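Example record for the data management plan.
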Amino acid sequence: MWHVHGEGRKGSSVSACFAKRNIRENNAAQVKVVVKWKPLGDDYYKVNFDGALDIQEKRGGVGIVIRNSTAEVMGVLAEPLRGVNDPLLIEAYVAVRALEDARDLGLTKIVLEGDSAGMIN
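Corresponding structural encoding:
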C-alpha cells in the first residue's frame, strides 16, 4: 500500500535510518553510515528500492521510496512477501514494481536506485 506524504522529509533514506538504529543497538561504533542526498535536475524523481529475505522463514519484504528533486518524500511503499526464497528474485520484483509504480504515478523522469549488485549488473 502506498503512503503519499504532503510534506516530505529531507535527509537520510529509510534504509540508512534502519542501519543507524542497528548500529546503535549492536554497539558497533566502528561502523559509519554516510548518506548524502545528490540533487537531481528539475522535474526528476529518485526512486529507491530494496528487498529483504528471511530464507528459513521463506518470507521477505520490499520497500520503495520516491523523492522529488528537492529530496522531499513523495511516497513510500512497504510490502511483505511470503513463500519466497531467492534474494535476487525479490530484488528483481521490487525493481520492476518501482518502475511500474512510478509510471502509474505519472512520473516520466526518474533515477532508479537499488543496492543489489547482482540484479543491477
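Summary line stored alongside the record: The chain is about 30% helix and 30% strand.
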